[in-house]
Design goal:
single chain, 532 residues, Beta-Lactamase, 4 domains, 13 helices, 15 strands, 21% strand, rod-shaped
Amino acid sequence: MSRRPMRFARQALLLQIGLIALVVGIGFVLVASLLDRALEDQFGQRALAVARATAADADLVAAVAREDRSGAVQDRAERIRTSTGALFIVVADRRGIRLAHPSPSEIGKPVSTDPSWVLAGHEVVDVQRGTLGYSARGKVPLRDGTGTVVGQVSVGFDTEDIAHVLLRLLGTTAIFTGGALVVGVIGAALLTRGLKRRTLGLEPHELADLVREREAVLYGIGEGVLAVDADGRVSFANQEAEQLLGTGVAPGTPVSELEVPARLRSALESRQPVQNLITVAGDRVLVANHRRVSRDGADLGSVLTLRDRTDLEVLNRELESVRGMTDVLRAQRHEFSNRLHTLSGLLQTGHQDDAVSYLQALTSGPVAGLGPAGDAVRDPVLLAFLAAKKAVAAEKSVVLELGETSWVPGRVRAPVEVTTVVGNLVDNAVRAAQLGERRPARVEVDLLADGATLHVSVVDSGAGVPPELREDLFVEGVSTEDGDHGLGLALCRQAARSFGGDVRLADPGGAERGAVFHAWLPGAVTESEEGA
C-alpha cells in the first residue's frame, strides 16, 4: 500500500520552519564569532592602555633603568595589577630579565616570549600563552627621559574573563534569537494557513488541473463569461464576452467602471440572481444570466454568462412582420369577399353602371383605410405593416393614420430593420394613446423619403414623457410603465444606428398632444419606384 503524500501546506510549513531555523542558526554563529573577535580586541586594547599607563610612571622607569632589584618595581607593578584586575603585569629590563611578576619565583628569569620587537620601540597587542596560560596582552617599551628604551611592560588579561563576558552576551543573544525563531515559526504557520485558505485547501496539482480545465471550458464555449470577485472587481472575462459586449474588459476593473448596459451593471452591483435577461449591447441583442458563487461558505463573487440572441431577434421581427401581413391579408380577404358579393348583386340586379362606378371607387380610393395619404406610400411592405398595426390599434380603441405629408415613392431596402424602427415607435405611441386621457385616442405616422433617407415621425395623443425620464428614455430598462418594459426604444435606436441614423425624442408632449419621436434612416429606401 503506497503512502499518502504529504500535503503541500504542511510541506511549505516545514520548509519555512527549516529555512528560518537555518538562517537564525547561521546568524547566531556569525554573531558569536564577531563578539568573540570584538571581545579579544577590546581586552587587548584594555591591556595596552594599562601597559601605557604603567610605562608612564617615572619612578617605575627610573627603577628599571638602574635595574633595581630591591622589590620596588615588583611592588608598584602589583599595586597597578590589583587595581586594574589584570591577570599579570610583567616588567623587564633592556635584556628581557623580569623585574616584576605575579609569581615572585619568576623574577630574575627571562620573559617567556621574544622581547626584541618591543625593546626595539614597538607596541604589541595579541593573545598568547605564557607562564600563566592564555591571555590578551598589551606590551609597550619603557623609555627614560632621553627616549632611550630601558625595558618593557607587559600587561595581560585572562582569556577566561573574555569567555565569561562572551557567554553572558551570547545568552542575551540566544534569547533574542529564540524569540525571532518563535516569531518566524508563528509567521510561517499563519502564512501557510492563509495560503491554504486562499487556495481553498487545493493542492498545486489540483490547481493546475483546474486552470487547464478552466482554459479549456471558458475559451471553448460559445458563450461569454465574465467573473466578478467578492470585492466587486472583474477577475476574468473570456474573448467571447468582450466581443458580445463590444468592449475590452481588463481584470481588476471595478464593476462601476464597466462599459456595459445599465441593466447588466445593476445586476452585477446588486449581485442578485438573474435569469434570461434580455439586453442590448452595441448592435447585439444579448441574453444574460447572473448568479453568485460560493464554496464552503466562502463568498467567491459572481458569474455573468452572455448569449448572442441577435439572429433570433431578427427572426422574431421577421415572424412578427409575417404575422402582421397575414392578419392584414386575412382581413383583406374578407373585405374582398364582401366587395365581390356587392359587385355580384349589382350585376345580377342589372345595375351595370353602378357596378362600374363601384369598381372605379375601389381602385382610386386610399389604401387599407390609412387615411388620405395611404396611396402616397408605394412600398407594399410598409403598407401591409401599417395596415396590421392599424388593425391592432383599432382593437385598443386607438385610431392610427398616415400623416398628410407622407411621401415614399421608392421601395424599402431593409424591411426588417425599417419595420423594427416603425413598429416599436408605433407600438409605444398606441400604448401611450390608449393610456392617455385624450379622446379619441389617436396616433399619426408620417413617412417621408428624402432621397434614399427615410424620415419617420410618430405622434400620439397620450400624456407625453415625464421630465425625469427624458434624458434616459433610450436606455434599456427605462420605461414610462411598470413591469418588464424598457427594451423597445433601445432596440429601435439599435436598428436605426445600423443604417447610420438615429432616433430621438423630438417633443416630450404637452397640453395639445403627446410625445413626438423622430427617426432618420439613411439608405433605407430607393430613390424612386423604378429603381426598386
